[in-house]
Amino acid sequence: MIYLDSAATSYYRPDSVAEAVAGAIRTMGNGSRGTHPAALAGARVIYETRELLAELFHAPGPDRVAFTANSTESLNMAIKGVVRPGDRVAVTALEHNSVLRPLYQMEAEGAVLEIAGCVGAERSPGDPLRRKGLLDYQALKTILEGGVRALVCTHASNLTGNLVDIRRIGQWCRRAGVIFIVDASQTAGIIPIDMERDCIDILCFTGHKGLMGPQGTGGICLGEGIEVEPLLTGGSGIMTFSREHPRVMPTALEAGTLNGHGIAGLRAALGYLKEQGPDSLRRRERAAMDAFLEQVREIPGVKLYGDFDQPERAAIVALNLGDEDSGEVSDFLAQEHEIYTRGGGHCAPLMHRALGTERQGAVRFSFSPFNTVEEARQAAAALAGY
């Protein structure tokens, strides 16, 4: 089996992750819900994981890192905790439905959305520029200068793998007084992120992709001075007799029991990332992607989507074979060759419209540091045999 669907979720993980989860299930109590040894063990694991995440993302401190179940929860928390009826909000055509659907909900409640599209989106679907799926930075800059409360922006497209220049955009936001919310679902753990340098006010991430942690883990990091209205209220372990949920971070955004066992696995994954180094992991997955790309370019009728001239990008290759249905091609690879990819719409409707692939979708090959160059070449050869 060759797994090339890491943009959806990691399949290959360090052995230490599974071992940490199993160990936590056997030994950990409920962190921050008691002072006995089992509860304290849980609290220590959770706090140490906050420290590692704050270090990785250059967040202001571990107390500014709150845990969630995934990026979707983090983004809902950020969007609904910042945007109010009447606010103008900027967003890009590269976004996942985890961004778009909460924003559409806020739009129905009176917010106004301003969407920055892609360069060449008005051209024919076969146009080389349109297929690159490039964000229109000038259009985005114009929107920001026109006055908006917040910008929600992905760090990399989950469809094309194109990387967004969040440092440049963050500086625009800082000058314009715009709250900058970044979706790091496709980049956290692999592409460097510095909240201070990149002027990020709110960073949303998941633990089960590039961070290689368990599903059901994720988080939200807040910059200094940024407040988010809680999405949930309830048990907190502190201020029991208050009728209001505590406002102090990270408790303010962590109502209820955390997934301590999953967070233990995430801590182990973060330890692996720190030991290996993001640069080393990025080179490994990039080598596999480049080998795959070199071969598939030679397949007659192949249509590639994304900007592969970028020096840095997510290790994703989206493509189609002529007019073949992307789901059929993906199923062929799985059933005939045990090569696992993802066909269809990838929860990215605006990006597919920008590329002109709404009806056909695309076959997405997404690589991890555990994929080898040989696996990439086998996948390309199998695709050529469709």
Can you describe this structure?
The protein is an alpha/beta fold and 386 residues long. It has 2 domains: 2-12 and 277-384, Aspartate Aminotransferase, domain 1 (Alpha-Beta Complex); 15-276, Type I PLP-dependent aspartate aminotransferase-like (Major domain) (Aspartate Aminotransferase, domain 2). Helix content is 39%, strand content 13%. It is built from 12 helices and 12 strands. The strands form 3 sheets. It has a 7-stranded mixed beta sheet with strand order 2-8-7-6-5-3-4, sandwiched between helices. The chain has a 3-stranded antiparallel beta sheet with strand order 9-10-12. It is globular and about 70 Å long. The two termini are 18 Å apart. The model has no long low-confidence stretch (mean pLDDT 96).
